[in-house]
Design goal:
The structure is a single chain. The protein is α/β, with parallel strands linked by helices. It has two domains: about 200 residues, NADH:ubiquinone oxidoreductase-like, 20kDa subunit (Rossmann fold, 3-Layer(aba) Sandwich), CATH 3.40.50.700; about 90 residues, no CATH class. It is built from 13 helices and five strands. It has a five-stranded parallel β-sheet with strand order 2-1-3-4-5. α12 packs across α13. The longest helix has 17 residues. It is globular. Bound molecules: iron/sulfur cluster (3 copies). One iron/sulfur cluster binds next to α4 and α7.
């Protein structure tokens, strides 16, 4: 543990640059790790160091099958992320360190990506067993994300467009984390927002579950002085989507496609009706498939219908 901490403190900007050059990975399987040998120092000094270490929350950042974009958002925070690593005991974060995870209980686990393989699923379940708080980090983990498109488009047959020979190719349906384990909090977005990460991580480290305000993307969009796309009959999902991204898409004249997911009180029926004269039903559905919004919308519409019928 102590060795791990020292190594993390020594991580340089150069090291981050090297990490950034790592190729996009398709999956990650390892979790079992060797204990780290401690060396040097008197007995008293070692005990003091261990006591101080024990007060720091133990955190793991676990990557399943993903593009790793959400992890790179953390590295893009630069010194501010390194400062955070000084306040915690970071036992697993493959983009920064190669040390073995010593096992044991964890205060916080942040999980990126989809549990696609059996190994991913086992890693996720083990992480849940060890964690007081488990957080889904990003749209893939929380909503299925871009990989979930294949569930909608031809399902299992989509794979034939990618691989010439299908023998031995694992091709499961894509499911978000909460199909496998309890998720306590979500950092939404594709990728996550670095400022939002820094805003809520202190509460999570104290063992509390923060609540992201139920405010639409439109609030930030209007604050920025943007002209609403809807006024020009251009579609945008902003009113039903959870804000917090600083309306980055409409600020660049692009519609919000909903990567942060539905607001708890977003009126999806009204949104669909408002967009009727701006896009076809097929266009609407295709866009809701991009970030795994489609199944959440269907569920919300069902609930709304039940409530109206009650
Ligand atoms: S949410 Fe987006 S950025 Fe994050 S891992 Fe998934 S595809 Fe990559
Ligand atoms: S452009 Fe989109 S996000 Fe901005 S105010 Fe209009 S509907 Fe809302
Ligand atoms: S504007 Fe919409 S699609 Fe763009 S980042 Fe924000 S929530 Fe995601």
């Amino acid at each position: 543990m102590v060795v791990n901490k020292i190594k993390l403190k020594k991580v340089s900007a150069k090291r981050i640059g090297v990490a950034k050059k790592k190729a996009v990975k398709s999956e990650r399987v390892s979790v079992a790790r060797k204990p780290v040998e401690k060396s040097g120092g008197t007995k008293v000094k070692v005990r003091k160091a261990e006591t101080a270490e024990a007060r720091k929350p133990k955190v793991a950042i676990v990557s399943l099958t993903s593009c790793e974009g959400c992890q790179f958002v953390l590295l893009d925070l630069g010194q501010r992320f390194l400062d955070l690593t000084g306040q915690i005991e970071l036992v697993d974060f493959r983009l920064l360190e190669d040390e073995e995870d010593p096992g044991g209980k964890l205060d916080l686990v942040l999980v990126e990506g989809n549990p696609v393989t059996k190994e991913n699923e086992e890693l996720l379940k083990k992480a849940r067993q060890r964690a007081k708080i488990l957080v889904a980090m990003g749209n893939c983990a929380a909503m299925g994300g871009i990989p979930e498109i294949k569930n909608y488009q031809e399902g299992a047959n989509t794979i034939k467009h990618v691989y010439k020979y299908l023998q031995g190719i694992n091709n499961p349906e894509i499911k978000e984390l909460d199909n496998f384990v309890k998720v306590d909090f979500v950092f939404p977005g594709c990728p996550i927002d670095g400022e939002e990460f820094l805003k809520y991580i202190p509460e999570l480290l104290k063992g509390n579950i923060p609540v992201i305000p139920d405010s639409p993307v439109c609030v930030e969009c209007r604050k920025l002085g943007n002209r609403c796309l809807l006024l020009d009959k251009k579609p945008c999902f902003g009113p039903m989507i959870l804000g917090g991204c600083n309306a980055v898409c409409p600020s660049s004249q692009m519609m919000c496609q909903g990567c942060r997911g539905l607001r708890p009180t977003g009126n999806v029926k009204a949104m669909r009706a408002a967009l009727k004269n701006m896009m076809t039903d097929e266009e609407f559905e295709n866009i809701t498939e991009i970030y795994g919004l489609k199944d959440d919308l269907e569920e919300r519409e069902k609930k709304q219908k039940t409530l109206e019928g009650a």
